[in-house]
Amino acid sequence: MASSPCGNSNFDSGLEIKTRSVEQTLIPLVSQITTLINHKDKPKKSERTLAAIHRVGQAVSVAVGRFVAVGEAIATENQELKDEMGQACFEARRAGDAIAQLTDVGSALPSQLDGRVTVFSDRTAMVKAARLLLSSVTKVLVLADRIVIKQIITSRNKVLVTLDHLERVSTFQEFVQIFSQFGNEMVEFAHLTGDRQNDLKDEKKKARMAAARAVLEKCTMMLLTASKTCLRHPDCESARINKDAVFHRMRCALEQVIEIVTEARCSGENRILPASIYNGIKEFKSGVECLRENLYSLSPQSMSSQLEALVERTEDFTDSAYTSHEQRQAILGLCQLARQDTQQLVHAWVEAQSVHAKEATKDMEVAILKTCQSVSDLRRELHKVAVGRASDLLKVHGEQLPLRALKAAGAEGNLEEVAEYSRTLTEQKEQLVETCRLLCHVSGTEPLEITCIHAEETFHVIGPQIISAAQTLALHPSSKIAKENLEVFCEAWESQLCDMALLLREINDVFEGRRGDKRPYLSLPRPGKHLANMKTAKAVKLDAEEQTSMAKLGLELRLLSSDVDTEVEKWEDQEHEIVRQSQSLASMAYNMYLFTRGEGLLKTTLDLFHQAEVLSEEGLQLCSSLRTFSSQLVDEEKTVVMTEMEKLLALCQQLQMGAKTPVQGKTATFQKVDSSIQATRSILSVVLSLLPFCNKLNRKYKSERNSLSSPQDWRERQDASTPVKEEGALNSKNSNGFGVKSLEQHMAGLNLLESK
C-alpha cells in the first residue's frame, strides 16, 4: 500500500490515469495515507506520535470533504455523470470519515485507547479505508476529466458547424459575420486543447496534439484569405482548389484532436509510425547486449535478419539523389562493417553454444563490443548526413528566391513564369519532404518522429497551395486580396522552415544528450475551483489586423529568445551574472511567446503584464551588471557597451511603467499587450547585440590579464570589475539564420485569436 497509485496507471479497475493533473492531485493524498499505514507499531506511543497521527488523519478527512464538495458540484452541472459521480463522492466521504475515526487518537491517553478500534489496533481496517479512499478519489478525478473531454468535443462540434457555414457563404457581409463567430469558437477550442496538450502524460499523444493544433493555427489565416479570394473571384478554378484544400486540412486536424482526447481507434491512432533507423539500431544493440546474460535469448538467424532489415532502411539515404558520393560510400562501408562484426559475433556465439557455455565467452564479449560500436558509428554517420543536409537546405531556402519570383510573376500576370517557378518550388518541396523523412530516421524520440512527419506533411501540402494561390494572382494581377492570399501561404511555408530549424536543434540536443525537462502545466481545475468557473472567462476578440500584429511579435520573441540562449551557451562561465540574467530574460520572453499561442503558464492578460514587470526588473539588474563590466574597458569599448546599456535601461523602464499602468476596455488592453511584447522584443534585440560583443571583450581582457598585465595591473582590474570568462559569439543582432520575416505572420489564426 505504500506504493503510489500514480506509478501504476491502472490503480483501480478501468481507471487509467492519463493526465498529469489527476496524477499530481493524487500524490499528496497518497503520501499522507502512506504515512498513516507505515507508522512504526511500537508498544508505547508517545503523545507526540499520537498527535502527529491524529493531525494527519484529520487533514485527510478535511481535504476529502472539500474535494467531495467540488465533485458534487460537478455532478450537479453534468447530469449524465450524476449517478457515477455521486457514488464515487459517497465512497470517498465514507472512507475519509473512517480514516478520521481510526486516527482520532490525538487527545487520548495511551491507556484510554484500549478496547477502541484505531489505526493501532486494526491495521487491516486502515488499509481497507485507504484503498477505498484512493479508489473513489481517483474515480472522481477521472470522471471530472471526462467533463474536460466533453467540453473539447462540444467546442469542436461548434467549430465544425460554423466551418460548414463558412464554406457555403456567398457574400462578403455574411462571411465577415460568420468568420467573427468562428474566431470566437476557435479561441475557446484553442485554450481547451492547449491545456489538454500540456496535461497529457503520454509524450506521443502530446506531440500529435501539438501537430494538429499547429495545423489549425496556420490554417485559420489561410482560411480567411482563401475564402475572401474565392468570394472575390467565384469563377476562378485555382482559387476554389486553394480554398478547398484549406477547409479539408482544418477538418482533418479537428478530427485528429478528437481522436487523441477520446482515444478513438481511428486512422490516426492506428497509423503506425514508419520504422526509424534510430529505433532499429536501439533494438538491435539491446538484443546483442542481452547475449551477455542469456546465450539463448534469440537465434543467430533472427539477429542477422534484424541487421539486414536495419541496413535496408538506410536505402532512404543511399538511394537519394541528394546524397553525395562520399556520404553514400561512407554509409555503405559502415553497413558492410556492421555485417562483418555481426558475422564474427554469430560465429563466436555458435561456438559458445556448442560447448554449452552458460555465459558469454571472451571472444563473444569482444565481438559484442565491436558489433555495438559499428552500428553506433553507422547511426552517427546517418545523423551527420541528415542534419547536415537539413542545415544546408535551410541556408539555401532562407533566401526564399522561388517565393519572391512567384510573387513577382503573379503580380505581373505572367502565367509562364509562374509555371516555371512553380516547378522550382516543387523541386524544393521534394527536397524538404525527403529531408524530413531522413530526420525522422535519426530523431531519437517518438515525439520528435511525429514532429518530423508533421513537417513532411506540411511541406507536401503547402507547396501546391502556394502554386494555386500564385496562379490565381497571375489570372487576376490587380486583385489585392489574391496578392494577400499568396503572401499568407508563402509566410506559412517560411514559418515551417523556422519550425524545421527548431526541430533540428532539438534532434541535435537529443543526440548529444542535452535535452532538458519542460515545466508541465496542469489543466485540471485547481483546488477550490470547479468547471463552472470556466464559463465566466470570456476571451477578448481581436480583429484581423490585431491578429496579424500579434503573430508577428510572438514569433519574433520565439526567435530572439532562442538566439539569446544560443549566445549564452558560448560563455565559459555559465554562472556569470550577465549569463544568468540573459538566460532569465530569454526564458520569460519565451513564456510571453507561448501566451500569444494560447499555451504555457501565462493564461490571462494579467499574467502577461505581471511577467512583463518581472522581466523589466531582471533587465534593470542586467544593466547594473553591464555597468560593472564596462568599468574594466578602455574608452571606445566602454562607450559602445554603455551606449547599448543606456538603450536597454530606457526600454526596461518603459516596459515597467507600461506594465504597471492600469487600463480598461478591449482596445486599451490589446494595446497594452501589444506594447508589452514590442518592448520585450526590443529588449531582447539589445541583449542579443551585447552578448557577443561582451563575450569577445571579456575573452580579450582575460587573455591580457593572464599573459601581458603585471600583477599590479591585474589586481587593479580585479578590484574594479566583476570577473568574467567568456568565449566566441555571433556578430549581429539579426542572427536568425533565415530572417524573422520568414516566421512573422504565419500564425495569424489561433496564435492571435487566442491572445486575450
TrEMBL record:
Source superkingdom: Eukaryota
Location of region: Disordered: 704-740
Compartments where found: Cytoplasm
Keyword Transcription regulation: no
Keywords: Cytoplasm
Predominant subcellular localization, coarse grouping: cytoplasm
A GO MF term: actin filament binding
InterPro entries recorded: Alpha-catenin/vinculin-like_sf (IPR036723), Alpha_catenin (IPR001033), CTNNAL1 (IPR030045), Vinculin/catenin (IPR006077)
Skewed-composition ranges (Basic and acidic residues): 713-728
GO biological process terms held by the UniProt record: cell adhesion; Rho protein signal transduction
Any one of the GO CC terms: cytoplasm
Sequence similarity: Belongs to the vinculin/alpha-catenin family.
Name recorded for this polypeptide: Alpha-catulin
Species annotation: Oreochromis aureus
Encoding gene, per UniProt annotation: CTNNAL1
